[in-house]
Amino acid sequence: MLRTLPALLLALALCGVAGGCGSAGESELTVLAASSLQDPLTAYGASFDGAEVRSSFAGSDTLAAQIRQGAAADVFASADTDYPAELRRMGLVEQPVVFAANELVIAVPAGSDISSLADLAEPGRTIVIGDPSVPVGSYAREVLRRLRAAESESILANVRSEEPEVSSIVAKLGNGAADAGFVYVTDVRAAAGGLRMIRIPETLRPKVTYAAAVVKGTGQQRLAQRYLDELRKGRGAIDLRRAGFLPPP
Amino acid sequence: MTGRTWFGLAASLATLLTLVFLVVPIVAIFTNASPGRLLDALGEESARDALWLSLRTSVIAVAIITVVGTPVAYLLAMRSFRGRAAVLTLIELPLVVPPAVAGIALLAAFGPEGIAGPLVADAGVELVFQTAGVVVALIFVASPFFLRQAISAFAAVDRRQLEVSRTLGAGPFRTFITVAVPVARPGLSSGLALAWGRALGEFGATLMFAGSLQGVTQTAPLAIFAQFSEPDGFVGALALSAVLIVVSAGLLISVKLIGGERAIEAEGRP
Question: Are strands A97-102 and A208-214 parallel, antiparallel or unpaired?
Answer without folding.
Answer: antiparallel
